[in-house]
């Protein structure tokens, strides 16, 4: 018992020292002094009068004090992670260690406290501040640290070394301080960086809205601020001279918010209007970036509607021109109808070697992209054949050298570098011409491929560039991003206002809980109530979905070089400074229709504006019958 009491005293003293030097606003409660006094009294009573039970009067409350001290240390874990110099000046941390901070406590300034410059989150909030009306926006920005990736060009002769980052942006809205939050828009994207060619690709995978926000919808402003941040070299978080923004526009009722298509207030844009919407948004981004870079920079914009020639595509875009009432900016680069894989003005991330034509070096394989399946069919055209006989060796088994001949080794090496299937015969122009006959493009709906390229001269780039795998402040682990995205797609739904509010609270609490180190209990997938496009009882057929990538038959590439940098850890400080932010918008309301103001819808879904162009329906003139004589 004496040794146990002595150990208790040592533990209590260590807690006392730790809590005193890393203390919060509760210096009297979290000092550990009471625990040390009880442990000392227990040891003294046991040594002086061991035959009595007086020492037990101090021994039993000691366990409760240990529990309280342990809870105090756990509540102080974010302060304990800091350096001693910072922790001493942060002694007024207060109640925010014990409960979730209030709304007024977690609003951050428009500048990052670490660097003094505007970060990604503040850039989005600054853009949302210009929307009309009175409301409050809350944004969560999850950007993972760079990780090695070799799946973007699976059919390249020599796969380039790429580094990928997953991006998820969640935007919620609050009509007034007393009303609950509700998610209104979300963006899922992936950023690929190829340092060998000084190129990067931003693939916008999904953009969705719930239709439960106020008018106008903030989706267009959110997407414009999102793409502008990466397109502008002044704000781009990676040092790459050339950047390509690519996306595939396909109209569906829902993408990121399950069952949101069942909400009566959500009115998704049709296929033609969605393509026109993307062209307008990317065109404004291209004009802004061109104006910011000046004459030295170059911005090229391409769009292609499979199954339509240039004149037909212009007619499709022209019939939806009322979505934009303002004239295009003077600095907007011209749109080119076609694909960017035959141009040479802005380099591609994976150019083919000299003297070798391989379609796998031009067409990237993104997730949920119809080009993947077509590339698989072009690459895997060989029929199964019987296995060949074993090649002879240069010597018999009794000899010394059992290695293959040099000529056979060279032939095997050349065969491995040869493009698969018909990849060496199909050019990019033929690929896109045949793409018009694919299932995703001939179902009657208009689909579109959009590309925006930005290039900057070499002398405008910084001389010192950080390592491509070096994490930046505010980045989160990839597992955290995938966990939140999986919960959003399979664990919640947005069919009604009440369910959307519960889903918003669950997702936002999960993001904060993961940053605090607490593992929130996220819901599992719902197989009965959650369906993809089209409900179980619906008579309409399901829309075509892009199959997953084919990896059978592709050579496995072992990553021999490990990541020299540790994966970033999401903390409460990261959550407050980079991930979460809110802003109160107090602007004049949107002018009603017919008052001379704009009436355009700002989102992918929401209230669709009426066509201002007066349509005259011509009646068929019936031929009068002559009376029979």
Automatic annotation (TrEMBL):
Biased composition (Basic and acidic residues): 398-422
Residue intervals of the DUF6534 domain: 5-78
GO biological process: DNA damage response; regulation of DNA-templated transcription
Cross-referenced InterPro entries: DUF6534, HAT_RTT109-like, Histone_AcTrfase_Rtt109/CBP, Rtt109
GO molecular function: histone H3K56 acetyltransferase activity
SMART domains, per the entry: KAT11
GO cellular component term, pick one: nucleus
UniProt EC number: 2.3.1.48
Protein name according to UniProt: histone acetyltransferase
Species assigned in the record: Multifurca ochricompacta
């Amino acid at each position: 018992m004496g040794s146990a009491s002595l150990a208790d005293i040592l533990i209590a003293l260590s807690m006392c020292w730790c809590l005193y030097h890393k203390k919060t606003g509760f210096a009297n409660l979290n000092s550990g002094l009471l625990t040390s006094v009880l442990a000392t009294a227990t040891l003294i009573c046991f040594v002086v009068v061991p035959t009595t039970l007086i020492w037990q009067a101090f021994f039993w409350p000691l366990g409760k004090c240990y529990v309280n001290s342990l809870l105090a240390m756990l509540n102080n874990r974010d302060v304990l992670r800091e350096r001693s110099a910072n922790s001493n000046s942060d002694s007024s941390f207060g109640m925010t260690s014990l409960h979730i901070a209030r709304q007024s406590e977690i609003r951050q300034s428009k500048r990052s406290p670490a660097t003094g410059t505007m970060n990604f989150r503040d850039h989005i909030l600054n853009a949302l501040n210009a929307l009309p009306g009175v409301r409050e926006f809350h944004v969560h920005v999850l950007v993972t640290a760079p990780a090695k990736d070799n799946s973007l060009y699976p059919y390249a002769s020599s796969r380039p070394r790429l580094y990928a980052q997953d991006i998820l942006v969640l935007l919620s809205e609050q009509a007034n301080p007393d009303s609950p939050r509700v998610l209104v828009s979300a963006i899922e994207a992936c950023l690929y960086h190829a340092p060998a060619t000084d190129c990067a690709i931003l693939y916008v995978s999904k953009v969705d809205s719930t239709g439960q926000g106020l008018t106008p919808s903030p989706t267009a402003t959110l997407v414009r601020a999102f793409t502008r941040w990466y397109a502008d070299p002044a704000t781009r978080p990676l040092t790459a001279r050339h950047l390509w923004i690519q996306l595939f526009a396909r109209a569906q009722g829902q993408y990121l918010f399950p069952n949101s298509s069942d909400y009566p207030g959500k009115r998704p844009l049709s296929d033609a209007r969605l393509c026109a919407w993307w062209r307008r948004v990317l065109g404004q981004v291209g004009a802004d970036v061109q104006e910011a870079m000046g004459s030295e920079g170059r911005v090229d914009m391409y769009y292609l509607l499979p199954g339509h020639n240039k004149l037909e595509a212009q007619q499709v875009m022209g019939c939806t021109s009322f979505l934009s009432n303002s004239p295009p900016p003077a600095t907007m680069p011209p749109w080119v109808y076609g694909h960017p894989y035959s141009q040479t003005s802005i380099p591609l991330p994976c150019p083919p070697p000299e003297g070798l034509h391989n379609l796998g070096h031009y067409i990237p394989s993104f997730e949920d992209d119809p080009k993947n399946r077509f590339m698989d069919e072009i690459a895997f055209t060989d029929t199964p054949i019987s296995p060949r006989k074993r090649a002879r060796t240069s010597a018999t088994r009794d000899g010394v050298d059992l290695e293959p001949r040099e000529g056979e080794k060279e032939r095997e090496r050349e065969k491995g570098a040869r493009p698969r299937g018909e990849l060496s015969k199909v050019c990019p122009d033929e690929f896109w011409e045949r793409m018009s006959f694919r299932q995703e493009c001939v179902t009657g709906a208009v689909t579109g491929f959009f590309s925006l390229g930005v290039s900057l001269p070499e002398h405008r780039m910084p001389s010192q560039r950080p390592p491509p795998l070096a994490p930046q402040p505010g980045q989160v682990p990839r597992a955290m991003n995938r966990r939140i995205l999986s919960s959003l797609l399979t664990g919640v739904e947005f069919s009604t206002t009440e369910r959307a509010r519960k889903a918003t609270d669950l997702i936002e609490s999960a993001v904060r809980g993961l940053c605090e180190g607490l593992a929130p209990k996220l819901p599992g997938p719902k197989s009965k109530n959650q369906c993809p496009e089209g409900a179980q009882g619906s008579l309409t057929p399901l829309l075509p979905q892009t199959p997953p990538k084919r990896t059978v038959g592709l050579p496995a590439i072992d990553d021999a070089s490990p990541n020299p940098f540790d994966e970033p850890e999401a903390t409460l400080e990261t959550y407050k400074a980079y991930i979460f932010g809110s802003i109160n918008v107090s602007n004049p309301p949107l002018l009603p229709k017919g008052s001379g103001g704009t009436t355009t819808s700002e989102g992918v879904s929401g209230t669709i504006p009426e066509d201002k162009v007066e349509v005259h329906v011509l009646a068929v003139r019936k031929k009068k019958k002559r009376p029979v004589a």
